[in-house]
Design goal:
Layout: H1 6-29, H2 56-70, E1 75-84, E2 100-105, E3 110-117, E4 120-128, H3 145-163, E5 168-176, E6 179-188, E7 191-197, E8 204-208
Antiparallel strand pairs: 1-2, 1-5, 2-3, 3-4, 5-6, 6-7, 7-8
């Protein structure tokens, strides 16, 4: 992690928490837009992102333990994180992402999130939602964040990041109609690359730019 000032680190964590809350609200509003053609991803420039040295599997265990204290029936529905490209990215096996985990409780009819940032667990308070999201089964996936990162790089990610050294890379693991999917997307101004990967087999499902 870069040596930022404490104030800047707190600000970045606050922004990450606000993004998590926004994601919760969007999940809550999703049923209102059922059947509507999804818009193309809107690229945006983000100059920095919180990083973490905690592996995905360990982060998930810590998040699940915290969610269980909130609601014993809490189930994982989504995992995501973002990473700002830094010099030397070609040598890393997996970006140091600060992972966010989203949990749904049928008893509470609410969604809550935990963000794992090194030794810190940040808890996003639950929001009541209208419908139950799909449960993310098979976690941790056989094809983890390192595999998704390699698939992204092989499917055009290397070229994209060389051409866009200030891009932000976003990871998302979520259940869909056909099962769970890794989505790895890179954004830089008006350009983007999105890759979908099967988290159990590692098979490339989609490459879109």
């Amino acid at each position: 992690m870069n040596n930022n000032s404490p104030a800047r680190t707190v600000l970045i964590i606050f922004i990450l928490l606000m993004a998590a809350i926004l994601a919760v609200l969007l999940l809550n509003l999703a049923p209102l837009f059922a059947g509507v053609e999804p818009a193309q991803p809107q690229p945006r420039r983000v100059r920095s992102a919180v990083t973490s040295a905690v592996p995905l599997e360990e982060a998930g265990q810590r998040a699940a333990a915290r969610a269980a204290t909130w609601a014993p029936d809490a189930v994982l529905v989504r995992v995501e994180g973002a990473w700002q490209v830094n010099p030397g990215w070609e040598q890393i096996s997996v970006p140091p992402v600060a992972w966010s985990f989203y949990f749904f409780s049928a008893a509470e009819r609410s969604l809550a999130a935990a963000v794992i940032h090194d030794d810190t667990l940040l808890w996003v308070p639950p929001f009541e939602i209208l419908v139950q999201p799909r449960t993310l089964t098979g976690y941790p996936p056989a094809y983890g964040a390192d595999g998704a990162w390699l698939s992204f790089r092989a499917a055009g990610g290397d070229l994209f990041l060389r051409q866009h050294p200030e891009a932000q890379v976003h990871f998302r693991l979520q259940a869909g109609p056909q099962g769970a999917t890794w989505t790895v997307a890179a954004f830089d101004m008006g350009e983007y690359l999105r890759v979908l990967v099967d988290p159990q087999s590692g098979r490339l499902l989609l490459q879109e730019d």
